[in-house]
């Protein structure tokens, strides 16, 4: 049985509970996408980034997989390995502060 990703995505975008969770995770995955983009733009493989960071390729894969967010120290090491500078911005939620 084949599942069409685009059709499934359209259905899920209309599910309120799914969208609530998606919005909660969006900042995390924005960081992950930025890291992957930095690596790709630098022309390096995960293995090359790992060597530059003095870590393993599997550690870089875990960072890029989004299963855990990097510490600031790791974020700066990754940036140095890709020849980039991380920029962090804080923006207000549209609905106000969440506590």
Structural overview:
- The chain contains five helices and no strands.
- With 99 residues, the protein is an all-alpha fold.
- The protein has a domain at 22-81: Orthogonal Bundle (434 Repressor (Amino-terminal Domain)), CATH 1.10.260.40.
- Helix 2 (16-42) packs across helix 5 (72-82), helix 3 (46-53) crosses helix 4 (57-65) and helix 3 packs across helix 5.
- The mean pLDDT is 88.
Question: Any descriptors?
Answer:
single chain, 99 residues, mainly alpha, 434 Repressor (Amino-terminal Domain), 65% helix, 0% strand, globular
Query: What's the number of helices?
Result: 5
CATH top level class name of the domain at 22-81: Mainly Alpha
Overall 3D shape: globular
Under CATH, the topology of the domain at 22-81 can be stated as: 434 Repressor (Amino-terminal Domain)
Provide the CATH superfamily of the domain at 22-81: lambda repressor-like DNA-binding domains
Which series of helices and strands comes N to C?
HHHHH
Taking Cα atoms only, what radius of gyration do you get, to the nearest Å?
Answer: 17 Å
Mean pLDDT: 88
N- and C-termini, Cα separation: 44 Å
The CATH architecture classification of the domain at 22-81 is Orthogonal Bundle
What would you call the structural class? mainly alpha
Give the beta-strand count.
0
Secondary-structure blueprint of this entry?
Elements: H1 5-13, H2 16-42, H3 46-53, H4 57-65, H5 72-82
Helix pairs in contact: 2-5, 3-4, 3-5
Short description:
This protein has 5 helices and no strands. It is mainly α and 99 residues long. The chain has a domain at 22-81: lambda repressor-like DNA-binding domains (434 Repressor (Amino-terminal Domain), Orthogonal Bundle).
């Amino acid at each position: 049985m084949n599942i069409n990703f685009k059709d499934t995505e359209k259905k899920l975008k209309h599910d309120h509970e799914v969208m609530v969770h998606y919005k909660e995770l969006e900042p995390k995955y924005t960081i992950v996408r930025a890291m992957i983009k930095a690596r790709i733009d630098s022309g390096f493989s995960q293995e090359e980034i790992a060597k530059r960071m003095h870590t393993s390729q599997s550690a870089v894969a875990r960072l890029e997989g989004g299963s855990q967010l990097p510490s600031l120290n790791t974020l700066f090491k990754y940036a140095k390995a890709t020849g980039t500078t991380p920029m962090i911005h804080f923006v207000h939620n549209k609905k106000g502060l969440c506590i």
